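DM from R.C. (forwarded with permission)

"hey, sorry to bug you on a friday — could you get me a structure for this? deadline for the figure draft is monday and I only need the backbone to look sensible"
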Amino acid sequence: MPKDGAPPPSSGRHSNPEVDFKGQKRTNETHQSKAVGADKAYDTESFVEGCREINVTPHVAQNTSGRSSRIDQRTTRHPGYRLSQFARKLIETVFGDAKQHGTLRQVKLRGFAKVELLFTLAATVVNLRRLPKLLAIHLSG
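My reply, with the result:
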């Protein structure tokens, strides 16, 4: 969101607007985030309280292994928290698949363009592996 307070023009639903950022330069000096997602390693008092101090909602996965989580009902009661955790899990699964079956575990290429092509190839492979299951769901429905 722009720091000057004027939101960019958008379309779509209010909760998830479609915004065209092409041609706009966005930096930490000009824009700021209102929400942050992270894995359970960030479920610490300093991180969660630091987010809240600057009015950022910490959508951090809860770490309940032998202790109580720093993420409480102020965050978990909202449907957006559950959605962000679900989306995070989907994204983690795609990256895990790309590392397991692709070549992203240890990249042996140098240069942004080469690594970008390798990532695109790995994402294509992941999608091709998912395609039969998605088609079966579509055809049976």
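R.C.: lifesaver. Helices lie at 45-53, 73-76, 79-101, 112-140.
me: no worries. The mean pLDDT is 81.
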